[in-house]
Design a protein that fits this description.
Elements: E1 8-10, E2 16-18, E3 21-22, H1 23-30, E4 34-38, H2 39-54, E5 60-65, H3 72-80, E6 84-87, H4 90-99, E7 106-108, H5 115-123, E8 127-130, H6 133-146, E9 150-157, E10 179-180, H7 185-194, E11 199-205, H8 216-236, E12 242-244, H9 262-280, E13 286-289, H10 293-296, E14 300-312, E15 315-321, H11 330-334, E16 340-342, E17 352-357, E18 366-373, E19 381-384, E20 405-410, E21 413-418, H12 423-427
Parallel strand pairs: 4-20, 5-6, 5-13, 6-7, 7-8, 8-9, 9-10, 9-11, 11-12, 12-13, 15-17
Antiparallel strand pairs: 1-2, 2-3, 4-14, 14-15, 14-19, 16-19, 17-18, 20-21
Helix pairs in contact: 2-9, 3-4, 5-6, 7-8, 8-9
This protein binds ligand LLP.
The site of ligand LLP has 21 residues, from helix 10.
Length: about 425
């Protein structure tokens, strides 16, 4: 049995308990594969994150990164805590608006925003982080057509190295994102924007990567951003009022992973910003953060039923469960570790070496390799932890698998927040051309 994170318990039958509900009952009632989100845990994480920064700095805007989990119920929980939103597509923007998050508390990020998306953002006074010179031009045109001024910032690339998976490291110079700081490309962006009538320059933004477990890179990021804020003020007379450090604070996935406390990050970045603001006599900017994973990852688990067990001599036993890379792609895509246990044997000793596979026809379809589980039997319930971020959000219908359901638990209450996909849902958008009918 593992050390459960504090929001999970085990009951007298040795079953995992989420909120106040037995996971085994959830699986029986709602079927598997089943995503389960714990509302109280999301609230706790948001409050802690917000407090960490708000205790140290007067103006703080936490913008939940919807890409981690854009389920409307999840967004609604965070909206009720007062979050803003980091959106990266038109539909995320619409989901955030629908949840009641005001447009002027949203940040629009990404390297490919269509004129149509920009129009929606400008109309709703969303702060747009410009990613290229050409985008700046398009923003100017759209804003002028609407007779409005677009609120913009620049996504800059500060060349900060943060140790994480190469696919989710974004702050290095070779990354596709943003304006280069070192070669003064970013400064050129500000210079151009300063002369544009329909553009109001208010922000600076970077995102150095995801699943970062060390505070130092955030301090380096703040340092580099504040240097540019100073130059922009001194050379162009523009006061940057939103300093946006992006997301990226990681969580412990492995039992022995360390934890990065948001308080540590807050202390170091606020110290940096404060020093520069005071030394250079700058206006105190609003400090923006865009956490995704930190807020929702460990509030979510995936329940999957064990179907078949196959022994291999001298090798781990294969355990096939009914959720695979279709439901959770992170292990296949990034080699990511998600802790796995048996939810119906949570107190039993782990004694069997297993590989946990999904049901798809791909060798890459696994959830975990070389794991220790209690003696596994058909019908056991596997629980995959820390899937509340980039889990359902990145799921697919590969091999025509139906999208899993998701339920939300709040103490002893539970409701479906994402219906299980049906065969009808799955095939609804296909059409047979007339000549094949
Ligand atoms: N802001 C921006 C501009 C981002 O690109 C991201 C994530 C975030 C905020 C939120 O980052 P977080 O706090 O969640 O680390 N699919 C990958 C993660 C990709 C993250 C992309 N950008 C995964 O499953 O690990």
């Amino acid at each position: 049995m593992l050390m459960l994170k504090p929001h999970f318990k085990a009951n007298a039958q040795g079953h995992l308990v989420i909120g106040k509900i037995d996971a085994v009952e959830l699986a029986e009632r709602f079927g598997t594969p089943l995503y389960v989100m714990d509302e109280q845990r999301v609230r706790e994480k948001y409050c802690r994150f917000h407090k960490a920064f708000a205790d140290l700095w007067p103006n703080v805007l936490i913008c939940y990164a919807l890409k981690a989990n854009s389920n409307q119920a999840v967004v609604k929980i965070l909206q009720s805590e007062g979050t803003g939103a980091d959106v990266s597509s038109e539909n995320e923007l619409k989901i955030a608006l629908r949840a009641g998050i005001p447009g002027n508390q949203m940040i629009f990020n990404g390297n490919y925003k269509t004129p149509h998306e920009l129009e929606l953002a400008i109309t709703n006074e969303v702060l747009i982080n410009i990613d290229s010179f050409q985008e700046l031009e398009v923003v100017g045109k759209v804003a002028s057509r609407l007779g409005k001024r677009a609120r913009v910032g620049f996504r800059v690339n500060p060349d900060v190295k943060a140790s994480t998976h190469p696919y989710i490291a974004t702050g290095l110079r070779e990354s596709k994102f943003g304006f280069d700081v070192a070669s003064r490309q970013a400064f050129e962006g500000y210079k151009l924007a300063a002369r544009m009538k329909n553009v109001e320059v208010v922000g600076i933004h970077a995102h150095i990567g995801s699943q970062i477990l060390d505070a130092a890179p955030f301090e380096e990021e703040a340092e580099k951003l504040m240097a540019l804020v100073t130059t922009v003020k001194e050379k162009l007379g523009i006061s940057i009022s939103f300093v946006d450090l992006g997301g990226g604070i990681g969580i412990p996935y492995k039992p022995d992973d360390s934890e990065l406390q948001p308080e540590q990050v807050a202390k170091r970045v606020v110290r940096t910003i404060k020093r520069v603001v005071e030394k250079k006599g700058l206006v105190k900017p609003t400090l923006v953060l865009e956490p995704g994973r930190y807020l929702v990852a460990d509030a979510g688990v995936l329940l999957a039923r064990v179907g078949y067990i196959k022994k291999r001599q001298g090798m781990p036993t294969w355990v096939a469960v009914d959720a695979g890379m279709n439901a959770l792609i992170r292990p296949a895509l990034y080699g990511a570790y998600h802790h796995i246990e048996l939810a119906n044997k949570i107190r039993k000793k782990n004694e069997m070496l297993v590989n946990v596979a999904g049901p798809l026809c791909e060798s890459g379809d696994f959830l975990g390799k070389k794991r220790k589980l209690p003696k596994v039997e058909q019908g056991d319930l596997a629980v995959i932890f820390d899937v509340g971020a980039y889990g359902l959000a990145m799921s697919s219908q590969h091999t025509a698998q139906l999208g899993p359901a998701m339920v939300l638990v709040n103490g002893s209450k539970v409701e479906i927040v994402r219906r299980r996909e049906s065969f009808e849902d799955l095939t609804r958008l296909d059409q047979i051309p007339r000549w094949l009918r």
